[in-house]
Amino acid sequence: MNNRRIPKYMQLKNELLSWLQSGRLQPGKQFPSENEIAEQFSLSRQTVRQTFGELEKEGWLERIQGKGTFARNPLRRDGEQVKTIGIITTYISDYIFPHIVRGAEAELRNQGYRLLLSSTDNNKEKEMESLQLMTSQPLSGLIIEPTKSAEGNPNLGYFLELQEKGIPYLMINEKYRELECPCLKVDDEMGGYKAARHLLENGHRSIAGFFKRDDLQGVNRLKGFLTAHREFGVTVSPQRVVTYTTEQKSDLPIQIAKELLSVGVEERPTAFVCYNDELAMNLMEVATQSGLSIPEDVSFIGFDDSSLAVASGTKLTTLTHPKTEMGELAAKQLIEMIQQGAVLGDTVFQPELIQRESVFTRKL
Question: What are the DSSP E strand ranges found in the chain?
Answer without folding.
Answer: 61-64, 68-71, 76-77, 80-81, 84-89, 114-119, 141-144, 169-172, 183-186, 207-212, 241-244, 271-274, 299-301, 318-319, 347-349, 353-354
